[in-house]
Amino acid sequence: MPHPNDPTLRSFIDVDATSDFPIQNLPYGVFSSNGRASRVGVAIGDHVLDLCELEQAGRLDVGDPGVFARPTLNAFMALGPTVWSRTRARISELLRHDHPELRDNSELRARALLSMADVKLHLPFQVAGYTDFYSSKEHAANVGVMFRGKDNALQPNWLHMPIGYNGRASTVVVSGTKVRRPRGQLKPPGAEVPSFGPCKRLDFELEMGFVVGQPSKMGEMLTEKQAAEMIFGFMILNDWSARDIQQWEYVPLGPFQAKAFATSISPWIVTREALEPFRMHGPAQNPAPLPYLKQHLPNNYDMQLDVSLRAAGMNEAMRICRTNFKYMYWSSVQQLMHHASSGCAMNIGDILGSGTISGPDKNSRGSLLEISWNGTEPVELPGGAKRTFLEDGDSLVMRGWCQGDGYRVGFGEVEGTILPAE
Amino acid sequence: MPHPNDPTLRSFIDVDATSDFPIQNLPYGVFSSNGRASRVGVAIGDHVLDLCELEQAGRLDVGDPGVFARPTLNAFMALGPTVWSRTRARISELLRHDHPELRDNSELRARALLSMADVKLHLPFQVAGYTDFYSSKEHAANVGVMFRGKDNALQPNWLHMPIGYNGRASTVVVSGTKVRRPRGQLKPPGAEVPSFGPCKRLDFELEMGFVVGQPSKMGEMLTEKQAAEMIFGFMILNDWSARDIQQWEYVPLGPFQAKAFATSISPWIVTREALEPFRMHGPAQNPAPLPYLKQHLPNNYDMQLDVSLRAAGMNEAMRICRTNFKYMYWSSVQQLMHHASSGCAMNIGDILGSGTISGPDKNSRGSLLEISWNGTEPVELPGGAKRTFLEDGDSLVMRGWCQGDGYRVGFGEVEGTILPAE
């Protein structure tokens, strides 16, 4: 049987070369349709393959009946990497153009293949914990230059470990969820005392996130191999940020309410296996990481990312950032090894966010803070509007994909529209 | 029927005046015994009352059959404050010396009343999120003086809001769980580069925690009344801290691996209702809190707290701290109002930690960092041993209670013993 990543594979379902969801991808999500309960599906072209229906028809057996009838991927993730891989291979087989089992069963196809337009996508897993890193050197340096000047741009610890903090898991939402402008304490320059009100410097952060699919025990460290095998898959993540709330609150314990109001993720979890063909080495790390952070394999990914803004009142979106996940200084595997290094237990459903992904160029900056250089260089939009930060009614879309030869392994999008503070 | 807080109430079970668990308390926990599955109980004197047995015997009906047969309190908490209050009143009635229903039913007593010595206590609820505050002015000032000098002791934001950060929920453990000394990156003064190894400055932090028993919605703020009614109960919390890991990692995103390896809580959740008689106003707040943080009711508690250390090789513990929860500058209710103020959703099972509770005196400091004044004033132990920070084999016990007239409403203890790094 050909490997599910084989670039020559074709499905009996027509998939455009620019689709994010060819047969080489097969990302998992949770959907509902026709008033039925949420369940697990896989994206293929413009369709969703209902794994519940396949299982009930006796065409998909992962050894845990009903695992796809649940409203989250957590139980499926708990089955482990061998089952993840076997399941993907079986789904690939069922969708192949030269495999008749589903292709020629019109009754089953009618039940199991739904048009993407007819389903509602949900948060794909129950978020156990959410940790956010800060692993793009370009982003850390941009922010450092803005706030501390060129000579002290990177903090002394930054090159020695993936700096991160615990985020708030309760407000991780799926793409399409509207985001209410947060309120908080603000103390703009010159103000004598803080006031409480709607954030005035609302920003996005373009990130990739990954979800931990296997747990680790309290007190145990992880090898590179163990960490890699715990990663179920990746998603695009928008770490919405209230810059003014953050500025006043973050010393000395870090960002708190400035990041707690919402974090949006893309609905389809692209498996680590599907991204294998796009793995590459990251930037050289100098100084060499301490032994517990050493990696011997390429753990970065050549993944194109872009951000578009449709300002309130505009008909079309304008691209404001184009970058690549490959620029990340610290890899996802290193983030996970560092996270467990103190003995911190990792749980199924933990999200680890990469941190804002900025690249070397001006148009590859992954936040408005950087794009508008702390509000001093507004973005000019078609029709004459300008933006330094996000305004009510603005809609932001992030997309990401790995470009294969004649196909893409993509993520779809993560979209969020800003509602006014109540 | 007398109110369950009535100080004249007596149980048919003998309870010593110095017991933490008189009939005026009735804290909830999760226990197992005789190889049976974990279930919900209430502490009374030296006994545990098995709520499962009471329910099955038709003596306790909270409208959700089987809610006490679960291994966590989450489902019971979900029933809300009216049910919490009614349930406590009914349990109080069943335990009263002048109520025959359980007292005179020897068969039910034999099944439902277990000796505390015969049960194993478990983590009482599934921890959804763990947020740690920093709300003792004395603690913040002590740390500030040590690291920034007397004139800059408090950060500019500290008097304006309860400063906090997201902690790590996956390593919250119940009293009695051994704590492995964490490893991490260390860069002691004078070192050119960091190294990785066992923490050398392992500390405790004496805190109170409370558990959120009712959720709030994303995007919604809380009034003082709403916040108070969401609090199910309180526990003692030891926020184990690796001072050397923290020192190197915490700028600019706050404590991360330095606090991620373990957080210990006491096994009995003392309800907010049981603590009502001990409510009092906290210290005057100057400047006046912004309107969203204003409180009109007394939200502090007169609760005595102490910490004892039994160093490795010592037979008895020595008290090293005696303080009171009443000193907290920001109340639990204010912490919760602030937490939700950005629109952050709160979940059933969220823990909010008070932050280290230090008092005005030298012997009321709630961490070894303060007690040993950053390692410069070692604690002298019986037998000649000294401690600046915790050593392998050391055991730490925290206790807390509110003193009534002839009875105590107490928490039991939270104990943890340090295992060597592997």
Explain this structure to me?
Two copies of one chain form a homodimer. Chain A has 422 residues and is an alpha+beta fold. The longest helix of chain A is centred in the first third of the chain and has 15 residues, at 81-95. Chain A has helices at 51-56, 74-78, 81-95, 100-103, 106-112, 137-148, 224-230, 243-249, 257-260, 272-275, 332-340, 368-371; strands spanning 28-32, 39-44, 47-50, 113-115, 120-122, 130-133, 164-166, 172-174, 179-180, 183-186, 195-198, 202-203, 206-212, 231-238, 241-242, 263-265, 270-271, 279-280, 300-301, 304-310, 318-324, 351-353, 379-380, 386-387, 395-403, 408-419. Chain A contains twelve helices and 26 strands. In chain A, the strands form seven sheets. In chain A, strands 6, 7, 8, 13, 14, 16, 17 and 22 form an eight-stranded mixed beta sheet that branches. Chain A has a five-stranded antiparallel beta sheet with strand order 4-3-2-1-5. Helix content of chain A is 20%, strand content 26%. Chain A has two domains: 28-122, Fumarylacetoacetase, N-terminal domain (SH3 type barrels), CATH 2.30.30.230; 129-419, Fumarylacetoacetase-like, C-terminal domain (Fumarylacetoacetate hydrolase, domain 2), CATH 3.90.850.
Chain oligomer state: homodimer
Low-confidence segments of chain A:
none
CATH class assignment of the largest domain in chain A? Alpha Beta
Strand content of chain A: 25-35%
Mean pLDDT of chain A: 97
Q: Percent helix among the residues of chain A? A: 10-25%
The main sheet of chain A comes to: 8 strands, mixed
Shape of chain A: globular
Distance between the termini of chain A: 56 Å
Q: Strand pairing plus helix content of chain A: what structural class?
A: alpha+beta
The chain pair forming the largest interface, with residue counts per chain, is: A-B, 61 and 61 residues
As for the CATH topology of the largest domain in chain A, it is Fumarylacetoacetate hydrolase, domain 2
Please give the count of helices of chain A. Answer: 12
Task: Name the CATH architecture of the largest domain in chain A.
Answer: Alpha-Beta Complex
CATH superfamily of the largest domain in chain A: Fumarylacetoacetase-like, C-terminal domain
Tell me the number of structural domains of chain A. Answer: 2
Gyration radius of chain A (Cα, Å) is 22 Å
Structure summary, number of beta strands of chain A: 26
